[in-house]
Amino acid sequence: MTAYLITNVSVVGAAPTDLLIRDGVVAAVGAGLSAPDAAVVDGTGLVALPGLVDLHTHLREPGREDAETVESGSRAAALGGYTAVCAMANTSPVADTAGVVEQVWRLGREAGLVDVQPIGAVTAGLAGERLAELGAMADSAARVRIFSDDGHCVADPVLMRRALEYVKAFDGIIAQHAEEPRLTEGAQMHEGEVSTRLGLTGWPAVAEEAIIARDVLLAEHVGSRLHVCHVSTAGSVEVLRQAKARGVRVTAEVTPHHLLLTDVKAETYDPVYKVNPPLRTATDVAALRAALAEGVIDIVATDHAPHAVEDKECEWAYARPGMLGLETALSIALDVLGPQWDLIAERMSRAPARIAGLDSHGLDPVTGVPANLTLIDPAARRTIEPAELASRSRNTPYARMTLPGRIVATFLRGEPTVLDGKAVK
């Protein structure tokens, strides 16, 4: 294993220092380090962060390898500065058994670019009728601890309560896609002024807020852990703030696109902007940004959702919802939060690693910890060209936008997966 000496780098925004990486760990930190056998990486002007962790990634394999594979998604993640991603269960077949989650986990290990931690389905086939094999998935080689029917809401309150009770036995988490389906039937975008003007069926904010309110009460009653996926409304923020004040064991995420884009984008009728939950109003965006800074929203999660060309380059009504996110998330966070490196590290690495129980991730690069880290050049600016992305899909809402920051290197247990801004393998 090659040793690496990263010189003159700012660790989470602190004064420049040197980092020595050897045998998969950070072997030394300090100014003026010397290691004749180490490959030197010039860190001048760069910021070292703990490797990013994404709690919400769609890798599509098995079943939709035309849109993404575990390998291609892992490469996109590494190029985005990630060292671990949690793969959602809405594959084909659904990841609702030990066999399927182990398949995804092993594909991640074979790719070797990021640690791929599968998320298991809450209900069999995502059908919302009976619980999936939660215990078997938890006991599998993949050691699943997060369960989600993402893309579908666990709408039945009795089933949701049973799921929360079941995972409490091993301190698992139910990650809810908060959407009351009876309020969103036929919905195409956020319900509001823009949807009325465009004549598109609206997705009301209350459809999200009602489920979150119900589920925090269930989690409080059971004493179990709840995670709320892709929070998108100001009302949801208030429900979460009140729940946390009462000590409910709830965490929440926001996506980069809900921090930056609004429902006005739908005026173009470009299906790249169709996403679930939909892009909301400028008022919602402001509330989400404030909640992220405050900690009411715990983390940024990409909801990276690749789609094949035919599923996006079609009429708005027939397009699949979802956007790419892994290769641009850190740039969006930097654009939204500014160079608040400790806050970015907390929201994009430390907190998601804690929530997912990924003990070797989310650790600041100090002596003795696993060398999972990313180097970013905050002064660089890059224009997003879809054809240059590592994902098999091209449905990025940031095409031809110029964003701040460039990932220069990513290390997974001391081995570079990205160097000089390019994937190593």
Residue stretches low in confidence (pLDDT < 50, at least 5 long) are none
Q: What structural class results from the helix and strand content?
A: alpha/beta
Strand content: 15-25%
CATH architecture of the largest domain: Alpha-Beta Barrel
User: Using DSSP, what is the number of strands?
Assistant: 19
Major sheet details: 9 strands, mixed
Gross morphology: globular
Gyration radius, to the nearest Å?
Answer: 21 Å
**CATH topology description of the largest domain:** TIM Barrel
**What's the level 1 CATH class of the largest domain?**
Alpha Beta
Helix content: 25-40%
Number of helices: 12
Instruction: Please give the domain count.
Output: 2
CATH homologous superfamily label of the largest domain: Metal-dependent hydrolases
Mean pLDDT: 98
Q: Report, as a whole number of angstroms, the end-to-end distance.
A: 16 Å
